[in-house]
Amino acid sequence: MKSASATTFALGVVLLFAIACSCSVEAYDFFYFVQQWPGSYCDTSSGCCYPTSGKPQSDFAIYGLWPYYANGTYPSNCDSNNAFNATKIQDIQSSLQTNWPSLYCPSSNTITPNGGAYMLDSIINGITSCLGHVPGIGCNKDSSGRYQLYLVYLCINQSGTLLMDCPVYPSSGCGSTSVVYFPSF
Question: What are its GO cellular component terms (predicted)?
């Protein structure tokens, strides 16, 4: 995993997003910070298209940051009088593109994107030992119909400053399998 300063930077950026996000009149309880493995996105029957800048880095990418309630529901009534203002984060956009840390835990726990099969518990335990919090895992299916590691869900407290244990986990999409593939990219 990257240094503590990179983690602090990431959580600081999450805090800025929390301040900039005003999608709910009611307070939410936590954020899902979700990262996506691009190899699993591309390794499906529909494939993928690279951006004009070329093939993305072979690393987890930000998939989203969403506010949630502790019961697993999410805010759905945005405050139209307080819309998102991208200019509030404009001064950090270049830093986001170059410095947003990735989830290096799998490679430091002998789980690497090499197309191999892994026990789902090994992936969860590897990330947990690195971060101190249990992640949620999302799967999709490759072009052969095998489940593969696609999303990693981390929970962040309401103020956007700390990782926390998730009060509820999303459906994994991994079926009843305990084996998932981690395709290279």
Answer: extracellular region
Is 157 in contact with 65 (CB distance < 8 Å)?
Answer: no
Report whether 41 contacts 82 (CB < 8 A).
no
- Predicted confidence (pLDDT) per residue in 119-174, tens digit: 999 999 999 999 999 999 999 999 899 999 999 999 999 988 899 999 999 988 98
> Alpha helices of 21-134 — where are they, by DSSP H?
38-42, 93-99, 105-108, 120-131
d(Cα 66, Cα 32) in Å, to the nearest integer? 5
Report d(CA 41, CA 140) in Å as an integer. 8
Q: State the Cα–Cα distance between residues 36 and 152, nearest whole angstrom.
A: 7
Burial (CB < 10 A; 0-12, 13-18, 19+), residue 59, is middle
Helix (H, G, I), strand (E, B) or coil at 91: helix
Which phi and psi (to 5°) does residue 91 adopt? -70, -10
Nearest alpha-carbon partner for 113 in 53, 34, 57: 57
Query: What contacts 170, CB < 8 A, 6 or more positions away?
Result: 32, 72, 136, 138, 153
Mean pLDDT of all residues belonging to the chain: 78
